């Protein structure tokens, strides 16, 4: 991969990179399309990164389909797909992790303590090997995007970070590889996340800006959904990810909700009236 990147760069091409954990869906494809608008040589990585899963999480169950993924990458215009294996990525004696001080201590980082150091570590390694000019990340993982932007700045990576909007099913459910875990009934119930975000956005836009009240009503709504268990629902400053008391400027509402055993995340920006 590294030699390929050197060659592509020596040809004066702009190398764009979409890192993924595979089991690709329209969300990933849209990131590839966005990537190709920013460069002319697209590299996709497929690597289910053990370093970002906790001991009781779904690493072994994580859905995989390499053959289908490779065909989708080719169709989307990828020039190369990087599929490192875990024993090479984390060779004998591997012991380094890239740790960020503040941004991981919110939202998903609270219930998944190893997630973001695993992400920053693997993304650092991928950046060093793939050597992209531009890298594209999805806004569905808003906290991950904020963390990668911060890391890129802090560690002087000469890489432009571009984001892509969340791609949704027709009924609003955010596309995710983990949606494949849902039974048909859970799949129907899972639309509650989007409906709740939209309802809260409408309330904020029409002047109900007290965050505690908005959160209380949102939590009641999600709690009434069969098989749903809230991990967190928060309204935060989109830059610092700190809780806000009022939606008097654009604020991010983010949530993680278990539907059955499947943990789903989603988020939406809330705007005050006007
Ligand atoms: O968003 C993902 O799929 C992963 O967290 C990433 C960025 C590929 C790192 O493993």
Describe the protein.
This protein is α/β, with parallel strands linked by helices and 274 residues long. It folds into 2 domains: 2-164, 3-Layer(aba) Sandwich (Rossmann fold), CATH 3.40.50; 177-269, 2-Layer Sandwich (Pantoate--beta-alanine Ligase, Chain: A,domain 2). Helices cover 38% and strands 19% of the residues. It contains 10 helices and 8 strands. Strand 1 (15-20), helix 2 and strand 2 form a beta-alpha-beta unit. It is globular, with a radius of gyration of 19 Å. Bound molecules: pantoate (PAF). Pantoate (PAF) is lined by residues 19-21, 49, 52, 119, 122-123, 141, 144.
Mean pLDDT comes to 98
Report the sheet with the most strands, covering strand number, pairing sense and barrel closure. Answer: 5 strands, parallel
Name of the CATH class of the largest domain: Alpha Beta
- Helix coverage percent: 25-40%
Q: What fraction strand?
A: 15-25%
Q: Over the alpha carbons, how many angstroms does the gyration radius reach? A: 19 Å
Spatial shape: globular
Main-sheet strand order equals 3-2-1-4-5
Structural class: alpha/beta
What distance separates the N and C termini? Answer: 49 Å
| CATH topology title of the largest domain | Rossmann fold
Q: What's the total number of strands?
A: 8
| Number of separate structural domains | 2
Along the chain, the helix and strand elements come as HEHEHEHHHEHEHHHEEE
Name the CATH architecture of the largest domain: 3-Layer(aba) Sandwich
Q: For this structure, what is the CATH homologous superfamily of the largest domain?
A: HUPs
Secondary structure tally, helices: 10
């Amino acid at each position: 991969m590294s030699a390929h990147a050197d060659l592509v760069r020596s040809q004066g091409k702009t190398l764009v990179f979409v890192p993924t954990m595979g089991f690709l869906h329209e969300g990933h494809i849209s990131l590839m399309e966005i990537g190709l608008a920013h460069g002319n040589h697209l590299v996709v990585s497929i690597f289910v990164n053990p370093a970002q899963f906790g001991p009781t999480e779904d690493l072994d169950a994580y859905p995989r389909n390499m053959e289908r993924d490779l065909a989708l990458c080719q169709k989307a215009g990828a020039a190369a797909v990087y599929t490192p294996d875990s024993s090479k990525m984390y060779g004998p004696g591997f012991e380094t992790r890239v740790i960020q001080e503040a941004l991981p201590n919110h939202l998903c980082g609270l219930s998944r303590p190893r997630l973001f150091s695993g992400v920053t570590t693997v993304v650092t390694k991928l950046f060093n090997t793939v050597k992209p000019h531009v890298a594209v990340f999805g806004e569905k993982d808003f906290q991950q995007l904020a963390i990668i932007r911060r890391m890129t700045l802090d560690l002087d990576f000469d890489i432009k970070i571009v984001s892509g909007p969340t791609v949704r099913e027709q009924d609003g459910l955010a596309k995710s590889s983990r949606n494949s875990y849902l039974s048909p009934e859970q799949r129907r119930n899972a639309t509650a996340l989007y409906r709740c975000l939209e309802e809260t956005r409408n309330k904020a836009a029409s002047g109900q800006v007290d965050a505690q009240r908005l959160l209380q009503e949102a939590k009641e709504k999600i709690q009434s959904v069969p098989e749903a268990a809230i991990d967190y629902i928060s309204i935060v400053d989109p830059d610092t990810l700190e809780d806000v008391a009022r939606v008097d400027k654009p604020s991010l509402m983010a949530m993680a909700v278990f539907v059955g055993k499947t943990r789903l995340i989603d988020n939406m920006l809330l705007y005050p009236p006007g």
